[in-house]
Specification:
about 170 residues, alpha/beta, Protein-Tyrosine Phosphatase, Chain A, 5-stranded mixed sheet, 7 helices, globular
Length: about 170
């Protein structure tokens, strides 16, 4: 096991234990009130709502097959639902800013998901760095432990976060 994989495994173990993942693939709770995951089913959304979840943020592209009408299922379960389409090819700073705004204003607990958890982990990296001031290396390890695995997405997210950080710095 490489040192990086060992550190990622340790970080995953350090994530808070979440008693209920509702059977959603790749679900992890990296902080209180936030569940990052792969694609839930309609039943899993209903179970999350019964357990007190208030918000669903869907990062899948509109053309991706969810297997059901997720917006309708979320509304039926009385969950706030927002779709923010994310792919490595189309991701931009405006999308990251929108995600940060939505997550900042989301009623918690919140479920953020994509198909596998990778995009969720990627945008969690942006959340950690831009909204919580977590050092980039630490945020990257936490994002990887939470599902970020795709090298193209990792590179794109890091570039955009660097650009957004630079645009926030006061100019002399």
């Amino acid at each position: 096991m490489t040192p990086r994989r060992f550190l990622a495994a340790l970080l995953l173990l350090a994530l808070p234990v979440f008693a209920q993942d509702f059977g959603i693939p790749n679900a992890v709770q990296p902080e209180d009130g936030l569940l990052l995951a792969g694609q839930p089913t309609a039943r899993q959304l209903k179970d999350a709502a019964k357990a007190g979840y208030r918000t669903v943020i869907d990062l899948r592209l509109l053309g991706e097959d969810h297997g059901f009408d997720e917006a309708k299922a979320a509304r039926k379960a009385k969950l706030e639902y927002t779709n923010i389409p994310v792919s490595p090819d189309t991701l931009d700073g405006a999308t990251i800013k929108y995600f940060l705004t939505v997550l900042s204003n989301a009623e918690r607990p919140a479920l953020v998901h994509c198909s596998s958890g990778g995009r969720s982990g990627g945008l969690y990296y942006a959340w950690l760095v831009l909204e919580n001031g977590v050092p980039e290396s630490q945020a990257l390890e936490q994002a990887r432990a939470a599902g970020l695995q795709d090298p193209d997405l990792t590179e794109r997210i890091r570039e955009l976060v660097d650009e957004l950080k630079a645009s926030r710095r006061p100019r002399p």
